[in-house]
Amino acid sequence: MAVPTTLPAYLIEDAVTRALAEDLGRAGDITSAATIPADKAAEAAIVARQPGIVAGMMLARRAFALVDPAARLEVLVADGDAVHAGAVLGRVHGPARAILAGERVALNFVGHLSGIASATAAFVQAVSGTGARITCTRKTTPGLRALEKHAVRCGGGSNHRFGLDDAVLIKDNHIAVAGGVAPAIEKARAAVGHLVKVEVEVDDLDQLREALTAGPDAVLLDNMSLAELRDAVGIVAGRAATEASGGVTIGNVRAIAETGVDFISSGWITHSAPALDVGLDITA
């Protein structure tokens, strides 16, 4: 999947506006207002303190512009680019007060999203050559899902469903209420349109065999051992996409991929990936 060069403008505007309101509150940056003349100009660089994959620079640019249109960020790297420690990601110039007021929001977005992109890239590299694809989940920060899923794509991963409304994923609780794996799949098929994919979560090989009788598009193999995953891939035999999920780490993801599954989903890459260390250095 090609990495998009940007996010929709309305998503950027909404996320940045909310973040600035949270940080600037009712009175704005009272420290800068008290210590820096209103007409003082400055230039600063956004710098990566460690190597990684960049994501979120368009949000940083909008953060400075919303504080003051005269504060302009020149972005020097594209989302999805690999950078080394010390790399300059962008240069911002304009009123010093505006640069300092927008600094934390800009760095929070770039650091958080670049951390997700970098973590995803590490998983993608770990499974290179196996044919398995790394995908995210709905375990995202409330309000930031589209941004975080963009960061996953920047790291070379693929996106699972964005919400409950764009694909059917029948999980163990659905199965318990619906009366079984096959009945749940059949009910879903009867209720949704022909373009909607149907995936079902299975815990063991017996559930998998039952699921396949109802023809799901994909099966989520939940917390299975490596031996079970290999057996599951053989049982499916190409009749559905296979997704391994649960307990995925950078240490075991290669072994999981080598079982032959099509996808490996990880909530960790969005909900727990460490932020990439980025900073803002005043240069003039």
In short:
The chain has 284 residues and is of the alpha/beta class. It is built from eleven helices and twelve strands.
Structure description:
This protein has 284 residues and is an alpha/beta fold. The protein folds into two domains: 9-116 and 273-282, Aldehyde Oxidoreductase, domain 3 (Alpha-Beta Complex), CATH 3.90.1170.20; 125-271, TIM Barrel. The chain has helices spanning 9-24, 30-35, 57-67, 96-126, 145-154, 172-178, 181-191, 205-212, 226-236, 253-257, 268-271, and strands at residues 41-48, 52-53, 72-75, 82-83, 88-95, 133-135, 168-170, 198-202, 218-222, 241-245, 263-265, 278-282. The strands form three sheets. It has a six-stranded parallel beta sheet with strand order 6-11-10-9-8-7. Strand 8, helix 8 and strand 9 form a beta-alpha-beta unit. The longest helix has 31 residues, at 96-126. The protein is elongated. The two termini are 40 Å apart.
